[in-house]
Specification:
CATH architecture: 3-Layer(aba) Sandwich
Order of helices and strands: EEHHHEEEHEHEEH
Mean pLDDT: 91
Shape: globular
Low-confidence stretches: none
Number of helices: 6
Helix content: 25-40%
Structural class: alpha+beta
Distance between the termini: 33 Å
CATH class: Alpha Beta
CATH superfamily: Gcn5-related N-acetyltransferase (GNAT)
Strand order of the largest sheet: 1-2-3-4-5-6-8-7
Strand content: 25-35%
Number of strands: 8
Largest sheet: 8 strands, mixed
Length: 206
């Protein structure tokens, strides 16, 4: 259960490392995002305000750090250890956001993964790591993931992990310049009493 500040924290599973996003990650993060711009564009959050734009990298990190200090978010980079590399390479991003304490004890999770590393189990492993931390360490009760119905790769992630499909939410979030429909998937701590990560690793194709 949570006792004091919830951030910073680093989570690891074999070569996969979830660690806090930092200002000094800008160069590598920008390179990875640029390389994946077409891959990520259809699922990119946008600002519905007239003339509204997304924050730049520094503004994004500042906002995420404030949310983490307020115990309402866990802003991770997904990194991967590679032979001969001095440090794990950035292969994606995962943010646990909208953390609600009190009687709700719930959060929402979002992520993206480098297209060149998609299909290697990175996303489900990262989601399982973060979910177990939220359930087992922070004491949260429910994790929610909202996905565009057209986003096949993300739908496969929640299917592999056994998240429940809770239904259709019309025009739920502003994505790529328009209000977009989503499906909501959720999991509660009672559904994975022994942890989501061990269950996923036991069923993961070799």
């Amino acid at each position: 259960m949570r006792a004091g500040p919830i951030w910073p924290v680093t989570l690891e599973c074999s070569d996969l490392v979830l660690r806090p996003i930092r200002y000094r990650d800008k160069k590598e993060w920008t390179e990875v995002r640029g390389r994946n711009s077409e891959w990520l564009a259809p699922w990119e959050a946008s600002n519905p305000a007239p003339g509204g734009g997304l924050p730049d990298y520094r503004q994004m990190v500042r906002s995420l750090k404030v949310q983490a200090a307020q115990s309402t978010a866990l802003p991770f980079l997904i990194t991967e250890r590679r032979p001969g590399a001095a440090a794990p390479a950035i292969v994606g991003q995962l943010t646990v956001s909208s953390i609600v304490w009190g009687s709700a004890m719930m959060a929402t999770l979002g992520y993206w993964v480098d297209q060149g590393r998609a299909g290697h189990g990175i996303a489900p492993t990262a989601v399982a790591l973060a979910t177990d931390h939220c359930f087992q360490v922070l004491g949260l009760h429910r994790m929610e993931i909202n996905i565009r119905p057209e986003n096949g790769p993300s739908l496969r992630v929640v299917e592999k992990l056994g998240f429940r499909d809770e239904g259709y939410r019309p025009r739920f979030l502003h994505i790529n310049g328009d209000w977009a429909d989503h499906r909501t998937f959720a999991l509660t701590s009672e559904e994975v009493p022994d942890g989501l990560l061990p269950r996923w690793l036991a069923t993961r194709p070799s």
